[in-house]
Amino acid sequence: MIRWFAALALLLLPVAAAAQSSAKLEHTSVELVAESARPAPGGKLTVGLVMKPIAEWHTYWVNPGDAGAPTRAVWTLPPGATASELRYPTPETFVVAGLMNHVYSHENVLLAEIALPAGLAPGAPVPVTVKLDWLVCDDELCVPEGATLKLDLTAGDGAADPAQDKRFADARAALPKAVDWPVTFRFEGDRFQLAVPFAQAAKVTGGHFFPAVEGAIGYAAPQSFSLAGDKLRLETTAEAARELKEVPGILKLDVEGYDQPLSFEIVAKLGDVPASTAPIAAAAAPGSSEGNTFQTAALALLAAVAGGLLLNIMPCVFPILSLKALSLARSGTSEAEARREGLAYTAGVVLTCLALGGLILALRAAGASVGWAFQLQDPRVIAFLFLLMVAIGLNLAGLYEIDVAGRGAGAKLAEKGGAGGAFWTGVLAAFVATPCTGPFMGVALGAAIALPPAVGLAVFAGLGFGLALPFLLLGFVPALRRRLPKPGAWMDKFRRILSIPMFMTAVGLAWVLGRQAGVEGMTLGLAAALLLGLALWWLGRRQGSEGRNFAPLGLAAAALFAVLLVNPVTATRAEAASDAVLAAETFSPEKLASLTAERKPTFVYFTADWCITCKVNERGALGSSDVAAAFDKAGVTTLVGDWTNADPVIAAFLESRGRNGIPLYLFYRPDGTVEELPQILTVDRLTGLVA
Fold first, then answer.
1. pLDDT per residue as tens digits for the range 632-685
2. Which residue numbers delimit the Thioredoxin domain (predicted)?
3. What's the pLDDT tens digit per position in 360-406?
4. Do 365 and 511 sit in the same domain of this protein?
């Protein structure tokens, strides 16, 4: 689908003002060259389109892969003359955010044959004009470009131009060798299998198959090569299509004894594929290497730890961390107990992050478009969190008690209770942290999706470790604990003050529930909160009168009650509502492609009702009349994507940007460049975009 948006953008390119034999655009240099300056009447003239993208940018093969668009050529020739289809050199693989593209990152020459009419008189002019449209991209941005090129030739003897000999020789050498081998393919379940009769099959050490048609293979899937008798056998993940009778493409092979890969232009016919007899190369992700994977994983892990650490100052996590630190200061635990609580808290956080990460990876492997905080797109989860925040707030306010440290029991129970409370506090902290994606987290979580599953899980574990690190340090560094305020009567007052952000969080969750499930869903949630409050008040009275701790039983019953009550709640698609005063349109990839093709400045942001950081920005910088006035004066179009409920289109776009969560703020300039803004916005930062 992405490639069709790119093709649409190409159609919107303005026509070049003048035709020359070469053009230098912002991201690409192009030139039209002919093998002969005096083509022979009735003969064929070979012409080349020389395309050279700037460093770190690329153009596309005829089948661009998961994204992109091929170069389009429209010829204007003398009457009776015709041009062949473009012949492309063997492409390279390029992987970004889990998408595989077939590209050219260096100078490449596309060849075409022009058949001239026999009636051309010697010395007659032979004008050759071509209108080119192409897409040029780097790993973050795609820009459609175009040019009209012209050569003024003269009919003659057809002799080759010596100045062009090497260029055309190199261009032909870069083409795959056309062969008529009896290549066969078949679909076996969700697998695509290919058999190639190749005399040097035993010397093949690796390779890649580029299908020239869609619907054959998953482009980014690993391709494994093996021997099948005297044939070379390839196997990879199949695409959904099953109607193909033939699959043309380029087979690129690494063969012992050759300095450069060998490329063959093949046409595979539907038929039998023999079973593998021996592997010849281990499957590897295309376009990647062990070194690159290790470097990417290391950087993603560091970013995840840093992002998790910064989450502790986010409004969705800080009250819980403060509460746990308060309990540690009050309990006066021993060194061993403090370390045990620190480890238990860390275990709760890390295991929750691993569980969420594993579920995300499993769902994405099954074809679902989900990202970080995906569980908050289910109104039943929001309703449960709402009741949990109400219960915690009532506890902090003193309505009932939870003896987190387990005091009043024996020593063993005290130790067990303290660690258990720390563990579940860690679970809660990790779970409610998912509405936030602080600095560093976007890149880390985006990389976790694209990396191998085991490495991706390590990144999620790193996120949990960073989130748990402050409390872990409190448990293991006595000097830090000594800096905590001394216990006293003030702690009870401070605990009641901490109930305020919990109740504010509950109010926010109730609003999100109303946005997701409508008035009926929010009414059910409020009714459950009222009954839960009455039940906890009754439990608190019994605690005060009998001196017994019924709270764990009460919370367990309340949790079951909440699940039963909110289970009928279902999501309803609410209109995107933003606190910003910017005049915004609903985001769609088609709309964004149209605006960027027209070179209009565009501000794109993604929000959700459960994203606290998003709402802070919308109340602040995005809600500023100064920003709205500056954008209006500069003609900036604003697009907003609402991810409150699951939306696979938004999830796919975030993945294409290497992101797995929100907020995300992007500014597309008229010159084609795009800037990703920080997750905490200021008025000066936004107005500076158009200053």
1. 999 999 999 987 776 778 877 876 676 766 788 999 988 778 888 887 788 888
2. 571-691
3. 667 655 544 455 555 566 677 777 777 777 887 787 787 876 543 33
4. yes
Q: Within 10 A of 457 (CB to CB), how many other CB atoms are there?
A: 18
**Alpha carbons 352 and 360: distance in angstroms, whole number:** 12
Q: For the residues of 304-326, what is the DSSP string, one character each?
A: HHHHHHHHTTSTTTHHHHHHHHH
On whether the CB atoms of residues 136 and 143 are closer than 8 A, the answer is yes
In a domain, 574, yes or no: no
Residues 608, 543: one domain?
A: no
Contact of 191 with 216, CB cutoff 8 Å: no
Q: What are the residues whose beta carbons fall under 8 Å from the beta carbon of 571, sequence distance 6 or more?
A: 377, 378, 379, 516, 517, 645
- CATH number of the domain enclosing 125: 2.60.40.1250
Give a yes or no: residue 572 inside a domain.
no
* Domain residue limits at 362: 290-566
| 664 three-class SS | strand
What are residue 122's phi and psi, to 5 degrees?
-55, 135
Output b/e per residue, 164-189; b: 16+ Cβ within 10 A. beebbeebeebbbeeeeeebbbebee
- Token reading at 210: 């580029």
The Cα angle at residue 351 between residues 347 and 352, in degrees rounded to 5: 120
Indicate whether 245 and 192 sit together in one domain.
yes
How far is residue 84 from each of residues 20, 114, 311, 381, measured CA to CA in Å?
21, 6, 59, 59
pTM, whole model, 2 decimals? 0.44
Give the count of domains, the chain. Answer: 4
Enter the tokens of residue 160: 């080759």
Among 123, 152, 174, give the residue marking a domain's end.
Answer: 174
Supply 395's token pair: 């506890």
434 Cβ partners below 8 Å, 6+ apart? Answer: 356, 372, 373, 375, 376
First to last CA, the chain: 35
CA 82 to chain centroid? 44
What's the farthest any 2 CA atoms get from each other in the chain?
A: 114
Shared domain check, 263 and 132: no
Residues in a beta bridge with 58? 137
For residue 470, give both structure tokens.
């402050």
Report helix, strand or coil for 371: coil
Using an 8 Å Cβ cutoff, are 286 and 220 in contact?
yes
